Amino acid sequence: xxxxxxxxxxxxxxxxxVIFPTKPQVKSAFFSVFIVVTFISLFLALVDLIMSSSLSxxxxx
Length: 61
Description:
Blueprint: H1 2-15, H2 23-59
């Protein structure tokens, strides 16, 4: 039981050292990730379209 108490005390101590992001930081990170994911997905969709068109032309379908 004493060991469990020490674990919770240590966890609380470590959690007090964490610096949580502010709301503007979270918003900024969200929009950055959203933009990057959008561009990558559009790029991959374009590559897929080109590859499928090329393969269809080669196979004659």
